[in-house]
Amino acid sequence: MHKNHLPVAAALEELRAVLRRGAVDVLCVLHLEDAFRLPRDAWEPGGVPDEIRCLLRSLSSLCKVAVVSDRDRGTLARALDFSGLVTVGSGGLEIAGPDGLYFEHADARVALPELAAVGEEVEATLGHLEPVTISRRKYAVELIHRNATVVERRAIRESIDSIVAAHDRLIVVKRGALRVIRPDVAWDCGMAVRWVLRALDDARDSVLPIYVGRRAESIRAVRNTGIGIAIGRLTGGVKPRFRFNRFGDTRRFLLSLGSMLEEADREGRETG
Hints:
Strand content: 15-25%
Distance between the termini: 35 Å
Helix content: 40-55%
Radius of gyration: 20 Å
Largest sheet: 8 strands, mixed
């Protein structure tokens, strides 16, 4: 076996050993953009690539699947375009799934009128600038200024900070040339993953969560009860069980996971 495939093989071997020990319900939690290395906004508005959508559809027929995205949950659900999934949108602020499963962060919902007002103000103040791209989501206003000059960047950032300063329920998240205005709530993807786990399994002893992504808080959420797989390097001192570094590792892992679950189901029917 090629050495670059070893992390995938090691993760599958551990999973195979867990399945051999007894019946468990696998919950595969995939952070869409991270797990499949999709560039930001690559799947909008045309939808998720067919290969990924077909892979998720096939896997969801064999185990529980939750797909996480920073995009709005409704946008995510429409892009995937099939039922049976748990969809986790806006970094965990809204969750929906089969059998009436639903969550919306109450404090984030209260902040929506302020977010709408700020979105209008940001567009009126900065929307005419050529280096600026503004996207308004349900729970976020995103502004990118990659091609701005140093002077323009300073003015843009000062304008955003000034606008948001008047709204106690909102916060600015800064990521390089990206500014994200969102509700200021104590909630993250890891908390959303824990909520899904509790909702799907009150006993919390028969569901085996497998997380694939780059969010340290989500790795922590499954560390004691499941398998955390990081895409690339993580910050914050979190050590995942496994790390996938090569493009295509996630696809290889999920295809093999599907085959493994089919085999386990077939063996269960033969011995049942």
